[in-house]
Amino acid sequence: MNREAINSLAWGVGIIALALVASAARKLGYIDGETVTRLVIGAMGLMVAGLGNRMPKEFVPHPWARRLRRVAGWSLVLSGIVYAALWAFAPIQLAIWGGTAAVLLGIAVTIGYGVSLRARVKGT
Q: What pTM did the predictor assign?
């Protein structure tokens, strides 16, 4: 198994373990249901940030592809951090809408930069 697959599997197992531990803590009365939701969904935001951080470090043979991965990495890191922070601290409705908007904005930045970069590469 390659390193990327192991890392992704570790994230998945970690989030499932967090969900199970948080659910058990809720059943024992240590935390409430909203805290369980915030923990698990916040962890997913951190996973997006982690994946965004790894993206630009992967080898890509073409310089323009490296540029796109760098922008995609930064946009996903920032949107993942905003997503996780909103789920950790904001009211639930704001976390839902703001977190979704943050991730969609990160994706839009990546797509927009990719389209503009493709136009520049084709123009040369």
A: 0.69
